Amino acid sequence: MDQFDPARVAVRTGHFIGGDYVDEGGRRIDVARPSDGVMYASVPVADAAMIDRAVEDAWRAFKTSGWASMAPRERAKILRRFADLVAADVETLAPLESLGSTRPIRDASNWDVPFTAEGIRFYAEFADKLGGDVAATDHDHLGMTIAEPYGVIGAIAPWNFPLVMASWKIAPALAAGNAVVLKPSEMTPFSVLRLAELAVLAGVPKGIFNVVQGDGRTTGDALVRHPKISKVTFTGSTRTGAAIMAACAGSGTKPVTLELGGKSPQIVFADAPHLDDVARRIAGAISGNAGQVCVAGSRLLVERALAEPLAERIQKVFSELKAGHTWSAGTTLAPIISEPQTARIESIVGRTVAAGATLQCGGTREGASYRPTLLTDVTPSSEAVREEIFGPVLTLQTFDTEAEALELAQHPEYGLAAGVHTADLGRALRFVRGLEAGTVWVNRYGRSADFMIPTGGYKRSGIGKDLGRQAYEANLRFKSVLIDLRQ
Ligand code: NAD
After folding, report:
1. Domains along the chain?
2. CA of 362: how far to CAs of 315, 319, 396, in Å?
3. Ligand 1 atom closest to 462 (CA)
4. pLDDT of amino acid 221
5. 291 alpha carbon – ligand 1 mean position (Å)
6. Active-site residue (options: 259, 303, 383, 388)
7. pTM given for the model
8. Which terminus in the chain has less CB density within 10 A, N or C?
């Protein structure tokens, strides 16, 4: 799909609890379209009583619906049907996603929706692959571990890829036999409601996949503290992740998976093959979704000899990006999610320039977008180099030696991802070993469609993994059994 008429998108709002829409009034949050700031709908804010209703309902469904106890291949069949329904629903889901988020419609229909469907299918295939282990014991005993679902998982998602981020939480949780209560971001609350409807249509029992709406302080906090939430999985900022971890510790020491912020380096050596391709990759890694990507490659470290030709090429790629509404044909530069976020980007760039950086390009608004920006003459202590900006702002630092490049690459707090571009395999592998990052890409930047490769951060970029086998295992707990065979 190339474009759509925003006036024709039907938006259902409310919570989705026990297989039905629930909206009982009370405080509401107005929701704006990032493309033009127009308020187009509102959501109710779930208070502690509504959270209690949702979690109790999910708990009841977990205990009584048969979801956890059914033959795993049956569960897999239902989830495959769910994936098929999501893929087939692109005409509804993609405009809904695009209208309320920063995702241009071409991206939403060619990537977000199919990728969400495929992620659900990937975890459906896990449903009967991991039942536990038999332990090596003496012959008088039989020892084993049995994999069991936790019960009700509390999932909290960010706004930058509303469907995809939510699917990384719900798909492994459901495949492992859990019930889920999901809180999307209050800025992008609607597309996951359609996802929950489709789950019920596919045969996921009512109450197994629930959505609650609201802000972090009221709704998110009540969700993670609820005593019947057995595990929390969160994607969002490092600051919120820390608050959630504290809330989990204070409400029953719940396990928690945290996918948090980043400030990822892209390291380019002078021998990197195909400079035009490298420039396109580097530019794409900071301008995709307008840099509103956790793994955005926001710090370019380049061997001195290559700095000028590379910077020129990157600026050319930036200049070709076309700002526009997410629903308009040809938009390739996403809008920024909100006015306060645009103002924040502007102020960080402004302060960094005032402190001595040179603005090579960008630094201006265009409609609801922020033009991709390249800053040079920065140091490790420059604000734009230190802070996660979550916008299309690339800083460029040069290096002369491998050791210097590695030192510049390590961020004092974050360790989410990194890219190394070089023709020298030994050097690439030395960086793979040396970089403190949860993911290292060599001669590419960004995830592939290989769901088996997990994602997650080192240091303050997170705890645990999304995707891969690890995310499935993280939705299971393991019971140890030891049987004395002599009795
Ligand atoms: P955020 O932390 O502001 O909000 C994320 C979610 O947490 C929202 O649903 C929000 O309502 C909720 N929340 C806020 N305070 C809460 C609280 N006290 N208790 C419970 N829930 C609370 O993040 P954001 O602005 O939505 O997303 C951007 C951030 O997410 C960036 O830092 C980005 O790097 C990170 N992110 C990380 C990954 C990853 O895989 N590591 C992926 C996407 C985004």
Report:
1. 6-260+462-480 (3.40.605.10), 265-450 (3.40.309.10)
2. 9, 9, 14
3. 41
4. 98
5. 15
6. 259
7. 0.97
8. C
pLDDT at 16: 98
Give CA angle at 289 (284, 292), nearest 5°: 105
Beta strands at 152-156 and 141-149: parallel, antiparallel or unpaired: unpaired
CA distance 423 to 440: 16
Question: Side chain identity at 299, as an amino acid letter?
Answer: R
Nearest 5°: phi and psi at 128? -115, 25
The protein residue whose alpha carbon is closest to atom 42 in ligand 1 is 294
Task: Give the three-state DSSP class for 235.
Answer: strand
**DSSP state for residue 103 in the 8-state scheme:** -
Strands, E assignment, 101-255: 132-135, 141-149, 152-156, 179-183, 209-211, 229-235
Tokens of 472: 């499935």
- Our answer on whether the CB atom of 291 is closer than 6 Å to any ligand 1 atom is no
Per-residue exposure over 173-192, b if at least 16 CB sit within 10 Å of its own CB, e if not: bbbbbbbbbbbbbbbbbbbb
Confidence band of 25 (pLDDT split at 50, 70, 90)? confident
Long-range residue pairs from 358-363, CB within 8 A, at least 24 positions apart, any chain = 360/311, 360/315, 360/396, 361/315, 361/318, 361/319, 362/318, 362/392, 362/393
Please name the residue that has the structure tokens 């061997």: 303
Compute the distance between CA of residue 160 and CA of residue 292 in angstroms, rounded to an integer. Answer: 6
User: What's the rounded mean pLDDT across residues 240-267?
Assistant: 97
CA angle 19–159–352, rounded 5-degree value: 170
Residue 395 has φ and ψ, to the nearest 5°, of -105, 145
183 CB less than 6 Å from ligand 1? yes
Backbone angles phi and psi of 166, in degrees to 5: -65, -40
- Residue with CA nearest ligand 1 atom 8: 185
Tokens (6 digits) for 83: 């994936």
C-alpha 273 chain-centroid distance: 30
Take residue 36 and report the two structure tokens written for it.
Answer: 């033009």
